[in-house]
Write a structure and sequence with these properties.
Largest sheet: 9 strands, antiparallel
Structural class: alpha+beta
Strand content: 25-35%
Number of helices: 9
Number of strands: 19
Distance between the termini: 54 Å
Strand order of the largest sheet: 6-5-4-3-8-9-10-11-7
Number of domains: 2
Radius of gyration: 26 Å
Length: 335
């Protein structure tokens, strides 16, 4: 896959990886390989020390990260200094998963080799996900696709096993803090709508064919529909903006079909944030709109708009169900 010709002006992620690599150089250990004779007279290779002793010096060259597992496979690419996920329309990756990956590879050490050739060959064939195994194949490459670190990881109870590229031997390694290899979305730098309940003034929910639902703050600080009584569903709708966690993202122009709902939250500061809901291929997405025309501090809206403009974000099915529940059922919900 070819990286897009994008210019972001943001070089912080490569700088972070470079500085992290520099910090690891001082702690480098040398892997040693010593021949050992088995009872059958064959020779095996035993290793000790770091699995990738030269890796810290190569960190600044990393341009691609590729993950293949039995559950998911995905790539990350460094585009003009900003890490992105091609599978998510080249949306920005977060810093934390990359930090964890670099540190995990830098800290990875041999503990022991598996004892017999039979077990090595049998286990090796079981862990390679490209051959139907249950492990995770991971490779980090330079921009020119030169491999910098390649391995297959597998868990066996409390043990972590490693097989290196071009080898059949399996080694047990120490436990380190790996990022998620089963959830590609965990690598995305998704926006967080962490608005506290006390900041919310009013909320409205509009759906085609349904009467608009207007929710206002009560004197006791709770929420209720205009002319109606409060109930848990109304409260959930009122507080949705501060509780919603996005699960994935894609370019907004890829969505098809009509808008199924518009959920608008007016903050006490005057900023209005709207979520427009779309269903596409069994997944639920929202586009965000900002109205800072009445906001006392429009900078907050500008920052959020910069993160979300031209993007759609996947929301949980339970949030979609709540926001598409008919108005009369929402008003009839019990305490």
């Amino acid at each position: 896959m070819t990286k897009p010709n994008l210019t972001t002006g943001d070089l912080k992620r490569r700088d972070i990886l470079f500085r992290l690599g520099g910090a690891c150089v001082a702690g480098l250990g040398l892997s040693t390989v010593a021949p050992a004779t088995k009872p059958n007279g064959q020779r095996e290779q035993r290793r000790s020390g770091k699995v990738f002793p030269k890796f810290a010096k190569e960190v600044s060259r990393i341009g691609w990260v590729k993950v293949v597992g039995p559950v998911a496979q995905f790539e990350l690419a460094d585009v003009s200094g900003t890490w992105k996920l091609p599978r998510a329309d080249w949306y920005n990756a977060g810093d934390e998963p990359l930090r964890r990956l670099i540190k995990a590879l830098s800290d990875l050490r041999y503990l022991r080799a598996l004892p017999t050739p039979t077990k090595q060959e049998s286990a090796a064939s079981q862990i390679d996900p490209r051959k139907g195994g249950d492990g995770v194949w991971l490779t980090l490459e330079a921009d020119d696709r030169t491999p910098l670190a390649t391995l297959i990881l597998a868990k066996r109870g409390e043990q972590t096993l490693v097989q290196l590229a071009g080898e059949t031997a399996l080694y047990e390694v120490n436990s380190v803090d790996w990022p998620s290899f089963t959830n590609p979305s965990a690598w995305l730098d998704l926006p967080k709508l962490d608005f506290a309940p006390e900041r919310i003034a009013t909320v409205s929910l509009a759906r085609p064919g349904q009467g608009q639902l207007d929710i206002v703050r009560r004197p006791d600080g709770g929420f209720a529909p205009v002319g109606g009584k409060a109930n848990p569903l109304i409260t959930d709708i009122a507080l949705l903006l501060g509780r919603l966690e996005f699960q994935d993202t894609r370019r907004a122009n890829r969505l098809t079909g009509p808008t199924r709902f518009s959920h608008e939250t007016s903050l006490k500061s005057g900023l209005v944030i709207a979520l427009d809901g779309h269903e596409d291929e069994g997944h639920y997405w929202v586009k965000l709109r900002m109205d800072a025309s009445q906001a006392a501090s429009p900078e907050e809206g500008d920052r959020l708009a910069a993160q979300t403009d031209q993007w759609a974000f996947e929301i949980p099915a339970k949030s979609w169900t709540l926001l598409t529940t008919p108005t009369d059922l929402l008003l009839q919900a019990g305490p």
